[in-house]
Every structure is written in structure tokens, then in C-alpha cells.
Design goal:
By secondary structure, this protein is an alpha/beta fold. Helices cover 41% and strands 19% of the residues. It has helices at 43-55, 72-80, 99-113, 127-132, 139-157, 191-200, 211-224, 243-255, 259-269, 275-284, 316-329, 341-358, and strands at 4-8, 20-21, 27-28, 60-63, 87-92, 117-121, 161-164, 169-173, 184-187, 203-207, 230-240, 292-294, 297-298, 311-315, 331-337. The longest helix is centred in the middle third of the chain and has 19 residues, at 139-157.
Length: 367
């Protein structure tokens, strides 16, 4: 299967600096170095980013979820009216709404957008944030609930559907009228997460780790699954005509961070009960002198940013080499991003995507 490329909508705001962790443990771009360059996540700007992704050949855009994000459902429904072919990978947490309502929302989105919805199920890794939304389950119970949620969601799409579980009990659930069922994307590194992925998801997502670690996770999911699953990876990207240009940009991102900001962010990130987050932290250990953890794979973003913390850095040829290497492992979908997201969509679209086309790696959706 060829490569499918997606971009990212910065619904927490955008900047020429790395989105870090604020005083409350959430995403923030407000640092002393980036204050003047901060871009509010207003509809006009997000439409600009979405259109840049569409014009440059990306299939879809991931819209994140969380306290500091604009609501992904509402934002993408609005942006869909300003784009033509771009798809929307809408992230949301199962504990925030009923699975039957989610099934109806997905059906409505598919009809009004012309079938451009994809769903990213986020179980949640930060207990404090989960509790902010009234969710007091521990991690394993959250994953158990996610499994039930996905059973009801798919059941409602093909309903009427009855379900009697620990977390959900529904009778006659269904989504009205005909629609194209969207694919379900899901990620997680704990054994409980891998079990949910193996049973319920269409695309298993991992954050950017060295190829050997990614291959190991793919093998774990495949071992648990008795059906075909596609695999995707979430990475930042700094791609330029030359490697020197790309690494200069990466170093400038570090120059905008103070040691105090890095230590504060690292302390906050270490509190997360996410196995994936701890794997991101282990890649660099907070050290600034060991950030290229594999050729062209740079862990500098994860010094201050929660979640996906690695970037592909290099010339267009080098970044294409790494994408091809991950693709050989079984990764078909790549969700990329960069700071700022508007300009970086053009750097990738004008340099990296033509190189991938030259190698016949791209799917028809990216043509």
C-alpha cells in the first residue's frame, strides 16, 4: 500500500516556537521568545492552514482534543465548508459523550462534508485533565470503556443495536439515514491500549520512535489481532532543500527555550500516566546533547511539548528516506506537522511531496 500523508490543525494556537506546557500543565505557545509571533487559533487562520494542506497535496488534517484546544467537531465542521477534498481526522475522548450520540454526529458530519470524516479515539492519559471533564476512571478502566464505546459506536452505525456492558447499556441504538462509515484511528502503548487497537481500530497510530521500536509495536498489535489493521505514525517535520538549512531551523527552536522552561515542562510531563508519554521522555532523558536519536529523527520537540515529541529533520531527500524506511516496516499513514503550520505545509508540499512522488511512494489521494 502506498503512503498517505496528513497534516495538523493547530487548534491551541500557532507560533514559530515549539508548543510547550503552560503553568497548568497544558499546551501553550506563550513563552517570552514567542509572544510576538503567537497566532490565535481563529477560524480564518485555521482555514488558511487547512487550505495550505489541501493545496499542497495532503489527504487530511488531524484536529487534536483537550482542554486547551478548540473543539475538534465544531472547528472541522466549520472548516469543511471552506475546503473541497480535505479530510478531517477528528480527535475526541470517549468519556466525553455517549457512543450513540457520537455515531449520530459522525453520520451527520459525513453527510454535510461529503464523506470527509475520520475519527481519532483518544482514551486520555492525564488524570487531572480527565477529572476536569468529570472522568475519574483509572487508566485500565478508561481503556475498557473505550473498547465498549467502540462496540456501541460501530453497532449503532449498523443498528438497531443492543449492548449491555459495564460502562454502557444501550437498547436499539442507531444512526439515521445512509452514510459512509468513517475509519477509526487509535493509539496507545500500554497492553490495555494494544488490546483495544487489535479488536476495534482500522488504523493504529504510534508516535515517532526509532524504526526498531516502531517495528516492535507493530508486531505486538499484529500478534493480538485476528484481522487486517493499517498503521500510521505521528511526526513533526523540518524539511528543506539542504540538511544544513533544516538543522538550522531545529536549532533555532531550541534557542527559543530557556533551561528553566525545559525543566519545568519535563517535570510536568513526567507526571503523566501515559506509557507513550514516558517513552517519548525516555528518548532524550532531558539532555540537549543527545537529541538526534536516529538519523534525521530529532527528539527536541519533546523537551517541552506533550504528546508527539519527535521530528524528521533534514533535506527533502533525507526525510523521504526516513519515510520510506518507516513505510517498509508497515507504516502507511503519516500525520505530519511543523512550526508554524502554515509555512511548514508549503515547505513539505513544495519539497518533500514531489520527492515522494518521484519515488512512486504516494497514494492517489496525495496526487
Amino acid at each position: 500500500m502506498p503512503v498517505v500523508l496528513h497534516w495538523f490543525l493547530p487548534t491551541t494556537g500557532d507560533s514559530r516556537s515549539i508548543v510547550g506546557v503552560d503553568d497548568r500543565g497544558g499546551h501553550s505557545t506563550h513563552t517570552s521568545a514567542s509572544e510576538k509571533a503567537y497566532r490565535e487559533p481563529g477560524l480564518d487562520y485555521l482555514v488558511d492552514v487547512a487550505r495550505a494542506a489541501e493545496r499542497n497535496g495532503f489527504t487530511g488534517v488531524l484536529t487534536p482534543t483537550g482542554t486547551w484546544c478548540e473543539d475538534a467537531w465544531l472547528t472541522t465542521a466549520a472548516i469543511a465548508q471552506h475546503t473541497s477534498t480535505l479530510k478531517f481526522l477528528v480527535a475526541f475522548r470517549p468519556g466525553s459523550l455517549s457512543p450513540t450520540l457520537a455515531a449520530q454526529m459522525a453520520a451527520t458530519f459525513q453527510r454535510i462534508s461529503g464523506g470527509r470524516l475520520m475519527l481519532n479515539i483518544v482514551t486520555g492519559s492525564d488524570a487531572a485533565e480527565q477529572q476536569r471533564f468529570g472522568d475519574w476512571l483509572d487508566k485500565d478502566e478508561r481503556y475498557a470503556r473505550t473498547g465498549e464505546f467502540l462496540s456501541v459506536l460501530r453497532g449503532a452505525w449498523n443498528g438497531p443495536y443492543d449492548f449491555d456492558g459495564k460502562h454502557y447499556q444501550v437498547a436499539g441504538a442507531f444512526a439515521p439515514r445512509r452514510f459512509e462509515q468513517p475509519p477509526i484511528y487509535f493509539g496507545g502503548s500500554s497492553p490495555a491500549a494494544l488490546d483495544v487497537a487489535a479488536e476495534h481500530t482500522d488504523v493504529y497510530l504510534t508516535w515517532g520512535e526509532p524504526p526498531a521500536a516502531v517495528a516492535s509495536k507493530i508486531a505486538l498489535v499484529k500478534k493480538r489481532a485476528d484481522r487486517e489493521i493499517r498503521f500510521g505514525i505521528r511526526l513533526h517535520v523540518i524539511t528543506r532543500d539542504t540538511a544544513e538549512e533544516a538543522w538550522a531551523v531545529a536549532n533555532s527552536l531550541l534557542d527559543a527555550l530557556t533551561p528553566e522552561q525545559i525543566e519545568k515542562a519535563q517535570s510536568s510531563l513526567r507526571q503523566a500516566d501515559s506509557v507513550g508519554q514516558q517513552r517519548m521522555l525516555d528518548l532524550h532523558g532531558g539532555r540537549l546533547d543527545a537529541l538526534e536519536i536516529y538519523p534525521n529523527l530529532w527528539a527536541g520537540v519533546g523537551l517541552v511539548r506533550p504528546g508527539a515529541g519527535t521530528a524528521l529533520v533534514g533535506s527533502h531527500t533525507e526525510v523521504a528516506d526516513r519515510i520510506a524506511e518507516y513505510h517498509e516496516l508497515g507504516i502507511d499513514e503519516f500525520i505530519l506537522s511543523g512550526y508554524p503550520h502554515l509555512e511548514e505545509a508549503y515547505h513539505a508540499g513544495e519539497g518533500l511531496i514531489p520527492e515522494l512522488r518521484r519515488r512512486n511512494l504516494l497514494s492517489g489521494a496525495n496526487e
